[in-house]
Amino acid sequence: MKATWTIKDVLDANHLPTPQSRQVHVLVVVPEGASASKNTRKRKRMEDEDAPDAWIKAIKDEQVTALPLTCEDLKEHLERALHVKVPVNDRLFQIMSTKNSTGELSSILDKLFEPEPRETLSDITAGILGGVIDPLGSGSEFATEDTYHHLWDSLIAILLRRVSNGNFRRNTNVSTSTGLYRPDLCFYYKNSNVCVFRGEEKANGDLQVPAIRKNEMTERGAKVEIIDMYDLGDLNGRLSFLLAVLNLSTLFRPVVDLIQPLDIPEYGTIERVNGVQIAFAEDCVVKTYPQSMPSDNIIRNLRDLHRRMQRHSVPNVVVLKNTNMKKKHVKLAPIGLLSPPENTQQLLMALRDILKALVALHAINLMHRDLRWENVLKYPEEGDKWFLIDFDEGASSPAAKVTHLKAESHAPEILSSSSHTVKVDIWSVGYLLKTSPFQDLPPELESIKAQCLQKNPSSRPTAKSLLTAIESLIES
């Protein structure tokens, strides 16, 4: 390679024409490789911004570092312009231009869309914009709730699925018959069980928001504020709502990150192996029994047990709110967290709460008979405090033997003896220790476990003596 190049050398090497008179030729020497990486980055940035769905990627990737702290801050966030604007094609651009003869749409159009239309759009972007700008219809004054579902889904559920990687579920709101509040629409962010967006759907008529009224009545002291209202029958209203939902979706990730992981979806329904369905609502669960189970007997027994527990102020137990023999369900509260102890200190706290309940139960000759970690839940928002649920197997002591319970998780005399007493619950305390999430128990708890799991019921300690021992370990 030559140490010195003339302009003529460069032109000859690149097969360029010879310089003519009265022409100025400029030769720029750039270090090898320097221009390539810079141009590549610039080209990639231009390609990313010009991609058909770049606006969706920008919303998904946005990292909100500080959540709005006031209603004013939230309103400002919902009304801000998009960082990457949405492309629009000629047809939709023409529709909006026609509607903007007075200029009232100019502000919202500037916040949402690119200034010039494109010839084509991706199927995803075209589908989203078509449902907002040129919807199929929004019903009439005689329309039912179902009539509006397509419009609502276009503006909310389907849109959120596209821009925030989540899923939505529709529930049947049976509040009329059970007092159970479950939103008509729940949106769950990504793989979390947290309902980050909930919707209550009503047909044409006076605007009512049962979800807001319900939240105002909860014991959590939630304060409800109306940030804005949108008329979805009007293009300006739909575009403003579109902008608000897109900006709102950027808050889902930081909100979910602040919430303790949930083992079941909010407002979800689970079905146990015996066919019992458990529906989770705002502040309670509804437990429905299948036809194959003697639901009448179970519900009558639950009524009696909970009436006696309430009369004697038994602590740390689930509360029976009401029952419905015809529909075969019971309503229970609160909604607990399936959160077994994670260390020895939490295990001691859980055992203390369980034993406080057992001391009170055994004092009135009641027994749970089905103590397993699945039936020990953590109180929400109360720190390390647990309570007992599922008294379907509960009974007065003594009771006759049963045959439908599993031998490995229940005291031996339940299945083998003609009768059994409250000592079956003491065996179950040992079983809880045996099946705790960690196996390296302190010697004191190993000793308690062995005492509780003794085959002879009369050799097992009492709930009261166990409570004294556990409280001593907590204080030590």
From TrEMBL:
<keyword id="KW-0418">Kinase</keyword>
<dbReference type="Pfam" id="PF00069">
    <property type="entry name" value="Pkinase"/>
</dbReference>
<dbReference type="GO" id="GO:0004672">
    <property type="term" value="F:protein kinase activity"/>
</dbReference>
<feature type="domain" description="Protein kinase">
    <location>
        <begin position="157"/>
        <end position="474"/>
    </location>
</feature>
<dbReference type="GO" id="GO:0005524">
    <property type="term" value="F:ATP binding"/>
</dbReference>
<keyword id="KW-0547">Nucleotide-binding</keyword>
<keyword id="KW-0067">ATP-binding</keyword>
<dbReference type="InterPro" id="IPR000719">
    <property type="entry name" value="Prot_kinase_dom"/>
</dbReference>
<protein>
    <recommendedName>
        <fullName>Protein kinase domain-containing protein</fullName>
    </recommendedName>
</protein>
<keyword id="KW-0808">Transferase</keyword>
<dbReference type="InterPro" id="IPR050538">
    <property type="entry name" value="MAP_kinase_kinase_kinase"/>
</dbReference>
